[in-house]
Every structure is written in C-alpha cells, then in structure tokens.
Amino acid sequence: MDLIKIAQETFHIEADALYKAAERLDQNFLDAISLILGTKGKLIITGVGKSGLVGAKMAATFASTGTSSFFLHPTEALHGDLGMISKNDTLLAISSSGESEELTKILPHIKRFDIPLIGLTGNKESSLGSYADVFLDISVEKEACPLGAAPTTSTTLTMALGDALAVALMEQRGFKQEDFASFHPGGSLGRKLFVKIKDLMRTTDLPIIKDTTTLKDAIVAMSEGKLGTVLIVDADDKFIAILSDGDLRRALMKEGFSLDHLAIEYASQNPKSYTNTELLASEALEIIENGRIQLLPITNDAGKIIGVLHIHDLVNAGIKSK
To answer: Residues in domain CBS (predicted)?
Structure first.
C-alpha cells in the first residue's frame, strides 16, 4: 500500500472540488455578500457534526475580519439559545445533505424571526435549500474518504467557501491591516502595529551615574543595574555618555588603566537616544539593530533620562522589526 499516493490522491480530489466550486460561483454568492453587508445585527452560523465544527471556524474568521459573528449550535438553540437571535441578524446554516435533523427542527422557528437565511448545502431541494433565501452550493462529486462516508472533500469545500465570503467582505468593507491588528492585539501583527516604546521601556532602578563617578563605582552600578551598561549624566542630569561592558573590556587593555579614574574617560560619548515614546516598538527595534546596540536610552526634551529600552525586552515581548 503506497500511503504517499493515497495522500496525494486526497489532495487531488479535494483540490479538484475546490476548482469546480470556484467555477460555479454565481449571483447567489453576491446575494449572500449583500445580505451580510446589510445585516445590522450579527451573522449567526449554525450546523451540526463536522458542519458545526467548520461553522465555528467560519464564525471565528468572520468575527476577526470585521463581520460581527458567533456560532449557535442547533440543539442548544432548541433549548433556549434561540433567544440569542434578534430581528436584525442574519443566519448562515450549514448542512451537506440539507436534512440534518437537529438543524431542520430549528428552521421553522428561524423563519418566525423573519430574518435572512443563507443555506450552505449540497442539495437545493432539501429542507435547508427550500427554507434558504440564498442557496450556496457545497455539493461534491466524491469524498476523499475511501468509504465515501467521512466528510472530507465536503468540509474542505465548505471551509473554503466560508473563507471566500470572509475575504470578499473584507474587500467590500475596506478592511485594512490596522483593523485586523485591532482584533488581534496579542498576535504578532497586533504587537507590531500597536505596542510602543512607552509600553516596554524600563523606568525604575536605572543604572544612572554622574560624570564625576569613578570607574570602580560605575562597575558596582553596572552590576546592580543588570543591563550590562551604565548611563552617565552631567551636573544637570542631562544624558551625555554610556559605559557598556564592552567599553569596560576595551578599557582594561589601555595603558594606565585605573579603577580610580572617572568612568566617563572610558565611556562612549554622544550615544544614541530617543525621545518619542509613542514610536512603535518594532521601529525602535530597527534603530537598535541598525545601530548594533543593545540598549536604547529614552530621554525627555531636556535630555534627561526617563527610561531605557533593551533589546531583550523587545525580543521577549515578541516584537519583530519590519
């Protein structure tokens, strides 16, 4: 038994069904889009078994791409959850046969609400097909399952049709990257578009020393600060230099090195800093990477240090540069 060929045949069967379904899209698809766009309430998805699982995924996709939506299980609907439906909603029901018992039982009650019903079924003459205001064909020639029993090709097609509806709705609504990120603030895109310097910078227990501090005391401050760096300010607390552990190692190689010398003698002068705390963290990471530094001091307009942004904090927060 060649399992690779069996797997490849599964791909081919399902891909062929998708191509054929794409070719038969018609005005009904456009009518479904119009109904959903005109919905003042929510788009409610319902279905049982594998159709229900696909429906739950579709509801999640719609909800995250600008179409307010949730999944309603037909059985729960018969036992009180019909109250979740309002007159401003639209229902999208899924059943390959169009005769799923749990689903067909709620259809007469759905019609009492006088709300639009979009039916995804493989049989237009079925109960679901008859009740539907808009019929979307999810029929397939064969399931990939060798027994023709387990929903395989049909569920793939149904999910793809749901994605097609969601993508078309996004285009119609002008749904942009920023809109998607606002629904996914915890995702990588949300972090990239919304997390700012002020959200991640450290503002307490900063290793700040005066320009009159000896190197010996600077090393103590560096150890206590746990940033591998000390920030040096002048008599007016203005940021003027930075001493890193790299600067310290290089200082050790210099003739006449002494721990009693002032730390600023071995520090990097005119270091990089930033004042705009509203800058996106992803853009700050670019500054750090391009400057080949690990720490970006943040100052106010007077040049006084108000915080620091360390590359490790950015990485740990999942921030990536553009």
So the answer is: 201-259, 267-322
| Superfamily (CATH H level) for 197-316 | CBS-domain (3.10.580.10)
Sign of the dihedral through C-alpha 181, 182, 188, 194: positive
* pTM passes above 0.70: no
Q: How far apart are CA 307 and CA 312, in angstroms?
A: 15
Those residues whose C-beta lies under 8 Å from the C-beta of residue 53, and which sit 6 or more positions away, are 155
Cβ(120)–Cβ(150) below 8 Å: no
**What is d(CA 122, CA 20) in angstroms, rounded to the nearest whole number?**
13
Tell me phi and psi for residue 160, to 5 degrees: -65, -40
Nearest CA to 33 out of 173, 177, 189, 183 is that of: 173
Please tell me the distance from the alpha carbon of residue 49 to that of residue 101, in angstroms, as a whole number.
11
Token pair, residue 153, equals: 């090709």
Class of the CATH-defined domain 3-175: alpha beta
